[in-house]
Structures are given as structure tokens and as C-alpha cells.
Design a protein that fits this description.
The chain has helices at 3-8, 11-23, 31-47, 112-131, 153-163, 211-224, 261-273, 298-312, 328-334, 359-375; strands at residues 51-55, 63-68, 79-85, 101-103, 106-108, 139-145, 168-171, 181-185, 187-196, 230-239, 249-258, 282-291, 320-323, 339-340, 347-348, 356-358. The protein is an alpha/beta fold and 376 residues long. A six-stranded mixed sheet has the order 1-2-6-3-7-14, sandwiched between helices. Strands 4-5-16-15 form a four-stranded antiparallel sheet. Helix 2 packs across helix 4, helix 3 (31-47) packs parallel to helix 4 (112-131) and helix 4 crosses helix 10 (359-375). The mean pLDDT is 96.
Length: 376
């Protein structure tokens, strides 16, 4: 079966499905909206013969797992885990200012690339296996995250649980520009830095301790900890009450990115050694969230070699690279499971108003995904 020609002949169907999913806007923080989109997607998986499990959440949208085929034949053993997310960074109503449309070989719209096209890829692959009565060697398990863009410990726990039963993990985040897979991702550490001082009248500042000044001293120290492999972004600063009051409290939120866990460990060790600069001031560091890095491993490299060979049979030359952003693949990789990321389509403008999918890559990557699911 030539899956490239198969999906090329069904390109119109895939675009129409993508349009439906994009129009079901699904920002991470809008539980009602993201649940509506997830329910639609899961109904499509159910139609294709998958068993659906759901994990309702209090603060975020419901998390879903789809398993195919179901019931599982005795000849199908082990498991491939596919990671998808349905949430986007775009608020409800953005579709009116950033409409879904096709222009030559590009498809535009909020969330079209990150990562609703990948949902269409996965649905199309499973529907093809079902319609063509083609049995994969391994059970296919799909995790649909409702809060990937903002991070969720509940989602991470489900991913970790699924990884324990999986032989391979494939994350369908968009590819690197040009179609490359992602073998390495930076980890992310979000830190809250708080400084406390003593309030006083601005006319007699010596009677107080300025928390904003202490915070500035600490932020300069933190920036000195930056290395080539570890970056620090000071993303938020708050503090003080009025111009004529010496600030009693001040705080900053830092986004720290790192390639290896050892980079993070060195950074946090240095933070713990920091002391207040101003007499009478207090400083405190707390971790708000931590996403592990996706480090290149021998197991993942072996999986890449297998997938590269499958791609070659489709006349596709796969390359591998790295990126600074995080994804659920980092969580899977931290579990020691062979993991590949960036198997989604090519495009540009992620999280930007020119977000678009390069249409030929949708057909190519769906054909590749289907062959991977059959051959691995």
C-alpha cells in the first residue's frame, strides 16, 4: 500500500476535519471549551474502533486515552504511546481575527500547527488501519492532553503511568523547520524569588529596608549564574506599595532553561547558597514548576535509526536536532523509554498570528506515521 497516494487522495477530507477541530477553539484555561474539542476528537477515535478512557480534572480539561485496536487481539502485544495535546494558546474568539483558510500550500488558523494537524494525522492513520483491515504489531495508545501549554502534574502522572507499559513513545509536536525530528529539548524550571524588608517613609529610608533593592541585588546575582547551557529569563517583577514608602516586599518569577539535569542541579545549588545583601533583608526561592529536559539517549537514537529507515522507504530523508521549548516528550524521555518528538507536520509561526501548516507535509507525515505504526 502506498500511503502517500492514499492520503493525497484524501487530502480534502483531512483539511475538512482539521477545519472542524480548529473551529472548536480550545485554550488551556477554558475548561468548557477545551472539553468540547476533546469530546469531539475522542468521538472520532471511537468511530475508528478505539476504546476511550477519561480522567476528569477539577481545574483543567478532562484528560483522555484512546486504545487501538479494541478488543486487542492476542497477536498484538506491547504498546506504542502517541502523545497529543488539544489545547492551544489562543483565546476563544480568536478564530474571527485569525480565520482558518487555505492559501496555495499553506493552512492558517489558531492552533492549526500546534498541534491540531497532528490530531488529524493520528485520526487518519488509525482510520486507515481500521478501513484497510491492517493490524499493527503493537497496541496503539493515544494520550490527549488538555493542558500541555500550561503544564499539568495530573497530565504528567498519566503520561508516566502509560510510559511504564510502552515500548516506544512518539510525540507529534510539529517538526523542526524543514521536517527534522527533535531528539533534545531544554528543561524548564520556574522559580519565584521573594525579598522581604521593612517599610518606612521615603523621607527617612535609613529606617527601613527596601525589598525592591534587595530583589535587584539578587537578580543580578542570578544573571551571573547564566552559562551557555543554562539561560534565565526574568519574566515578572512585582513589589512595593507607593513611591513614598520604602518597599516591604518584592518578588520576581524566573524562567530557567537547561539542556541537562546536571545544569539544573548546579544552578539550584548556587541559589541555595545566596544570602541577603542588605542588612535586615530576607530572601527566599521557591520552585513553581519543573519540566525535565529531553536528553539524547542511546535508546532514542536506536529508535530514530529505525524510523529513519522507514522514512527512507517513503523517499523521505529524516534529520534530527534540538529545540529550546519543552513538551510532553520530555516527561516520557525522563522515564527512560525510547522517545522521538517532532513527528508532526512542518510549518511556521507557532504561538504567533501567522501560525500555519505546510500542507504537503501533512500528507507526507501521515503516511510516515502510518508506516511507523505498522512496522515498529
Amino acid at each position: 500500500m502506498n500511503f502517500y497516494h492514499y492520503y493525497k487522495s484524501r487530502k480534502g477530507e483531512m483539511i475538512n476535519l482539521l477545519k472542524e477541530i480548529v473551529h472548536l477553539e480550545s485554550p488551556s484555561t477554558d475548561k468548557k471549551a477545551v472539553n468540547a474539542c476533546s469530546a469531539f476528537v475522542m468521538e472520532e477515535f471511537k468511530k475508528a474502533g478505539a476504546r476511550i478512557s477519561q480522567f476528569p480534572q477539577k481545574k483543567i480539561g478532562t484528560l483522555y486515552v484512546a486504545e487501538y485496536p479494541f478488543p486487542v487481539p492476542k497477536s498484538v502485544s506491547e504498546q506504542i504511546l502517541l502523545l497529543l495535546h488539544v489545547d492551544t494558546v489562543w483565546p476563544v474568539g480568536k478564530i474571527h481575527k485569525m480565520p482558518f483558510y487555505v492559501s496555495e500550500d499553506k493552512v492558517f488558523g489558531p492552533g492549526v500547527l500546534d498541534m491540531k494537524a497532528s490530531i488529524v494525522m493520528t485520526l487518519s492513520s488509525i482510520k486507515a488501519l481500521s478501513e484497510l483491515n491492517t493490524l499493527p504489531k503493537k497496541k496503539i495508545t493515544v494520550f490527549l492532553n488538555s493542558a500541555e501549554e500550561i503544564g499539568s502534574e495530573a497530565a504528567y502522572e498519566v503520561i508516566k503511568s502509560l510510559c511504564k507499559k510502552s515500548d516506544y513513545v512518539l510525540c507529534l509536536e510539529p517538526s523542526l523547520p524543514g521536517g527534522g525530528l527533535k531528539m533534545q529539548r531544554k528543561g524548564r524550571l520556574v522559580i519565584r524569588l521573594e525579598a522581604k524588608g521593612k517599610a518606612a517613609h521615603a523621607g527617612t529610608p535609613d529606617k527601613g529596608v527596601n525589598a525592591i533593592e534587595e530583589l535587584m541585588h539578587q537578580l543580578r546575582r542570578v544573571k551571573e549564574l547564566e552559562k551557555e547551557e543554562t539561560t534565565v529569563n526574568i519574566g515578572l517583577i512585582e513589589g512595593g506599595e507607593k513611591p513614598n514608602i520604602v518597599a516591604k516586599e518584592a518578588r520576581a518569577v524566573l524562567d530557567v532553561r537547561f539542556w541537562k539535569n546536571e545544569n539544573k542541579d548546579k544552578f539550584t545549588a548556587s541559589l541555595k547558597k545566596m544570602k541577603p545583601v542588605l542588612k535586615g533583608a530576607q530572601v527566599r526561592f521557591t520552585t513553581e514548576s519543573l519540566t525535565p529536559p529531553m536528553e539524547k539517549s542511546e535508546a532514542s537514537s536506536e529508535l530514530f535509526s529505525k524510523v529513519k529507515k522507514i522514512a527512507s522507504s517513503l523517499n523521505l530523508n529524516l534529520t534530527a536536532g534540538k529545540t529550546g521549548g519543552g513538551s510532553d516528550a520530555s516527561v516520557a524521555s525522563s522515564m527512560g523509554v525510547p522517545t522521538l518528538d517532532g513527528l508532526g507536520p512542518d510549518g511556521r509561526g507557532i504561538h504567533a498570528e501567522n501560525e500555519h501548516l505546510i500542507l504537503p507535509s501533512l500528507v507526507e507525515r501521515t503516511a510516515l506515521l502510518t508506516e511507523i505504526l505498522i512496522q515498529l
